[in-house]
Structures are given as structure tokens and as C-alpha cells.
Amino acid sequence: MIKKIISTMVRLFFGLFLYAFGLVLAINSNIGLSPWDVFGQGISKTLNITMGHATISVGFVIILINFMLGERIGWGTIFNMIFIGEFMDILMFNRIIPVSTNIVISVIMMFCGVMVIALATFLYIGAELGAGPRDGLMVALTRKTNKSVRVVRSIIEISALVVGYLLGGFVGIGTLIMAFSVGHAVQFIFKVFKFDVSKVKHRYILDDILFVKNSLYQINE
User: Fold this and answer.
1) What is the largest CA-CA distance in the chain?
2) Membrane-spanning residues where (predicted)?
3) How many helices (H) and strands (E) does the chain have?
């Protein structure tokens, strides 16, 4: 039991770190922010906060939307909201990933970022502790519309892009690459690992609360 919990948490946090790494790769490719980072930058400018904290703020709002759509919240959802933003700030403030000044390197960094994000999505959703805010939205809309992950994810990314641009986020050729490729990359990774996101059985926070409550009730008896 303990080994399973540890392996699950390692998978979750490795996925969250990879997601942040993929985002910073895209940012530092210097040819345009990813759609969600365009949105995050717009929020960052509006509220005068860091990109990481903007990501956390956006995640909180999306969690509320997911809840209204009937998507249950897991520990992975909360950790996603908090730690991806914090990992992003650590990577950016310490300049761990260099900023590209070469167009060829920039394009390579952008596509690498896309694939890293797709792999990270598979890892932390597969931990079955609840999808992250954005991916929870993807899952909820996939279930409600019966559309493919590729279509739903692309619509979400493009919507974030448009709103972010209106808020003053930076848009470049890399932004379009991210907007139209992330959904395809995620679906490709899911197929490679034969991962059906609609069949994932997450353990949610409410499940743990009920488990603790029932355990305490049995002890008191």
C-alpha cells in the first residue's frame, strides 16, 4: 500500500515538473507563448504578478468551472494548480532553460515543449488522483460532447489564445504551433501508451474524506 502511494506521488510530481518544463521550453523558444501562457501573461500584466502565480490563479478559476461541469476534484488537481506554477517560476528565475536566439533552435524547442507537455499529461492523469484544472476541463468537455481529445483540446487552446491576446499576451508563430499541435500530441501519446482518458478511475478528495470518516466511525465502535 505504502509503495503504491509513493510510486503514484512520484509519477504525479514528475508529470507536474515535466509539464512546467515543457511550458518553459515553449516560452524560452522566444517565438511566441503557448495559448495558456498568452492567457497567463495577460493575467500577469493585469494583476502585476509572476507568470507562475498567474498560472495558479487561472487554475483556481478553472477548477471552479470544472466543479460546475460535474468534474470531481482530486489531490492531483490541487497539486497541479499549485506546483506547475511554482516549478515554472523556479525554472525561469534560475534560468535553467536558456532563451533561444536562433530560429531553428527555437522551432526545435517549441516542438520539444509540445511533446514534453503531452507526455506530462499522460503521466499525471495516469496517476489517477484527479486531472489538472485544464485537463480536467478537457476531460469534462470530452465526456459531455463525445468529441475527440484532439478536437476538444484544440478548441480549449484556441479559446485561451484569443482571450490571452485580448489581455495583452504575446503571440507569435510558436503560439500557433502550440495551439494546433498540443491536442494532436496528447492524442498521439495516449495512443502510444494505449491510454483511454475516458476510462480513468480517479481517486478524489471526497473519497479520502469518506474513507477517513468511515475509519474513525469503525474505531469508535
Assistant:
1) 69
2) 12-31, 51-70, 77-97, 103-127
3) 9, 0
Q: How far apart are CA 55 and CA 124, in angstroms?
A: 17
Query: Which residue from 66, 192, 169 is spatially nearest to 122, judged by alpha carbons?
Result: 192
The residue type of 10 is V
87: which 3 cell numbers?
516549478
Instruction: Cite the DSSP H helix spans in the chain.
Output: 2-28, 35-47, 51-68, 75-93, 103-126, 133-145, 149-166, 173-192, 205-220
- The model's pTM is 0.83
Cell numbers 487561472 correspond to 58
Instruction: Give me the residue spans of the domains in the chain.
Output: 2-220
Q: Which residue has the cell 476538444?
A: 152
For residue range 3-60, list pLDDT tens digits in order.
888 899 999 999 999 999 999 999 899 998 878 889 988 999 889 998 889 989 988 9
